[in-house]
Design goal:
The chain is α+β, with helices and mostly antiparallel strands. Helix content is 13%, strand content 28%. The chain has two domains: 2-164, Quinone Oxidoreductase, Chain A, domain 1 (Alpha-Beta Complex); 174-216, no CATH class.
Length: 227
């Protein structure tokens, strides 16, 4: 299969022919339906050697969803054909943080040598992706995995912020939500100015509104042509 891989630091990724992985005990192979392109992928391309001790090469793509293609020995709770999302951070699965489902705070991350699929381990910019443990899969039910893929990062980030402050969000409380939207295209937004101003919309909670000006830059993730 063709995979879009990091082969060197501060170098463009390359399409490479690699073998379709076979799941070992406890592992799951998924057929990738959707793989989101994240700004972190651009950071990976820009970072100098030594920023992270990731072994090269590895396949990019850390926002992934698809269908179960094959199950390794001992895997329970999933069947071939199930639609699943792949949890982004991959920890050891044994430390206190991992047992609390906070694998992004894994206490053994340094020994693992990777942060997850697409971040040191093979990710979803390929037709198939090997998941090291079934605990990293989330059943999607009736959700389309093509549309659900970005939820594993772009959706999980605001969810995490809300979940941590859920005890404060009681009926009658006030919140301010700041968003920046960019049209789908070949460029990324770059903030050029932030201007604080009083706004009647936020007067009840005494907050400041922020006027954010941004322009498009030429930075873009190259189009993919996986087959």
């Amino acid at each position: 299969m063709r995979a879009y891989q990091m082969t060197g630091w501060q170098q463009p990724p390359e399409f490479r022919d690699v073998e379709v992985p076979e799941p070992g005990p406890g592992q799951v192979l998924i057929k990738v339906a959707g793989a989101g392109a994240c700004h972190s992928d651009l950071h990976l391309m820009e970072w100098p050697p030594g920023t992270f001790d990731f072994p090269l090469p590895f396949t990019l793509g850390h926002e992934n969803a698809g269908w179960v293609e094959a199950l390794g020995a001992g895997v329970e709770g999933f069947r071939v054909g199930d639609a699943v999302a792949v949890h982004g951070p991959w920890g050891c699965g044994r430390c206190r943080a991992c047992r609390l489902s906070e694998e992004n705070f894994c206490e053994n991350a340094a020994q693992i040598g990777a942060l997850g699929g697409g971040l040191g381990r093979d990710g979803g910019f390929a037709p198939f992706m090997l998941i090291p443990a079934a605990r990293l899969l989330v059943p999607l039910g009736g959700l389309d995995p093509v549309e659900a893929a970005p939820l594993t990062d772009a959706g999980l980030t605001p969810y995490h912020a809300i979940k941590r402050n859920l005890h404060k969000l009681v009926p009658g409380s006030s919140v301010a939500v700041m968003t920046i939207f960019s049209t789908r295209g070949e460029s990324s937004p770059r903030v050029t100015s932030i201007t604080p101003s009083r706004s009647p919309s936020f007067s009840s909670c005494g907050s400041l509104a922020l006027t954010i000006t941004f322009v498009a830059t030429s930075t873009a993730i190259p189009p993919l042509g996986l087959a």
